[in-house]
Every structure is written in C-alpha cells, then in structure tokens.
Design a protein that fits this description.
135 residues, alpha+beta, Thiol Ester Dehydrase, Chain A, five-stranded antiparallel β-sheet, 4 helices, 32% strand
C-alpha cells in the first residue's frame, strides 16, 4: 500500500505560519479516499452500489508543526474492523521521517435511506477486502 502524499499549501497555514489544526483532518479524508481507491473500493464505486460511510468519530494528536510547502506522507492502516464499524489509523510524517500527527477515524456503513448495512451479508466482497487488511 502506497502512502498518500500531501504538500502543505499556503492557504492551509495560519497567521503564525504553521498549518491550521483543522487541515490535518482534511488530509485524513484525502488519505482515506486514496486508500479505498488503492484497495479497489473508491467512493464512487461504494456510492454507486448503495454504501455510504459516515464518519462517527475522529481524533488527532499533534506532534510537530508543519509549514507551507512541507511534504507530508500519510500512512493509513485498518486498526479495527467489525461488520458495522471501521476504524482507520493515520500516521503523518515529514520528509525527515518525524511523526507530525497521529490520528484515527471511525466509520459506519449505511444505505441511502440511512439504514445500517451488514457488510458481511450484503456486500461480502467489500467485507473481505477490509477484513484482510485488519491488524
């Protein structure tokens, strides 16, 4: 699995010249979208077959500041997967290999009507793809 690479943009920084804290969660979303694409289950595919995956929790631990034009690599792993809940862990590192942020996001699975989906029964291929990646 390839890491997702993000280059800090000028508009992502604040008056102090460091990346505003809210952007790290946006980068987690970018990395998650890329992760799903890499495993063959991009968002367009999921939505076209009726799977919606809302965020139910998110957490970030900021370790080191980043600034304009820093290159940030984001590693995404499946920390926990149950049939109705997915927890992804994110580790962000700078070009020196230093951890700048660690976090996680949790997701549920619902259909377009908002009803809970049981992946193992209703979408076994997606269920198995995630199960194989769970630690």
């Amino acid at each position: 699995m390839q890491k997702y690479r993000h280059i800090v943009q000028y508009y992502e920084t604040d008056k102090m010249g460091i990346t505003h804290h809210s952007n790290y969660i946006r980068w987690m979303e970018e990395a998650r979208i890329d992760f799903l694409r890499q495993i063959g289950w991009d968002y367009a595919k999921l939505e076209s077959i009726g799977i919606i995956s809302p965020v139910t929790a998110v957490n970030c631990k900021y370790k080191k500041s980043t600034t304009f034009e820093d290159v940030i690599d984001i590693d995404v792993i499946v920390e926990e997967f149950k049939e109705v809940k997915l927890k992804l862990q994110y580790t962000m590192t700078n070009e020196q290999g230093e951890i700048v942020c660690q976090g996680y996001s949790e997701h549920g699975f619902i259909n377009p009507e908002g009803k809970l989906i049981r992946l193992k029964r209703e979408y076994p291929n997606f269920y198995h793809a995630l199960s194989e990646l769970a630690e």
